[in-house]
Design brief:
The protein has a domain of 114 residues: Alpha-Beta Plaits. It is flat, with a radius of gyration of 24 Å. With 180 residues, it is of the alpha+beta class. Helix 2 runs antiparallel to helix 5 and helix 3 runs antiparallel to helix 4.
Length: 180
């Protein structure tokens, strides 16, 4: 009696749209498959080396207050991306093209080359607070807590919808840049 041959299952990879839980952007927020909302805000970073001890302690206490008052899910995201010097490069290129003095042109060319090197070899690190809310009403409550504890003291800032989309793109594809 011959053995029955099992059919091989063919694996069909899911598309990105099927894998990601984002449905649309509503009021500057990401609306998710499960009818919840996600928002992203930028954490304002400071130079801790030059900051005073009391300033650092105040900031830590503000974040502690935020974590005590905020019960919903949140995530702090750190992203490295290449330093963007394109605008400065364009300015120096314009100055080089309009300069008459050859010594001045040489100095400008050196500065331009430094900017190109910075653009190629240096990275910036930015931090973002991502909040997850089950409903729009809960989002408004969370937003109020964030405003009172972090935004009013300058520890967090709003970002536009376009940058939020670029951040999500960066999180989904590590090889992309936030700029352009």
């Amino acid at each position: 009696m011959p053995k029955k041959h099992k059919e091989e299952k063919i694996y069909i990879p899911k598309s990105t749209a099927e894998l990601l839980p984002f449905v649309c952007i509503d009021k500057g927020l990401f609306y998710m498959n499960d009818k919840s909302y996600v928002d992203i805000m930028q954490i304002v970073t400071k130079d801790l080396i030059s900051a005073s001890e009391s300033e650092i302690e105040f900031d830590m206490l503000q974040f502690e207050k935020f974590y005590k008052m905020y019960a919903a899910d949140c995530k702090i995201i750190g992203i490295n991306f290449p330093t963007d010097t394109k605008r400065q490069q364009q300015y120096f290129q314009h100055k080089i093209n309009t300069a008459d003095n050859p010594l001045f042109k040489e100095i400008l060319q050196t500065k331009y080359e430094e900017l190109v090197d910075v653009n190629l070899y240096y990275t910036d690190r930015e931090y973002y607070l991502m909040i997850f809310c089950p409903s729009y009403e809960k989002y408004l409550e969370a937003r109020n807590i964030i405003t009172v504890t972090l935004k009013n003291v300058g520890l967090i800032s709003e970002i536009d919808t376009e940058k939020k989309i670029r951040i999500i793109t960066k999180l989904c594809n590590k090889a992309t840049s936030i700029y352009g």
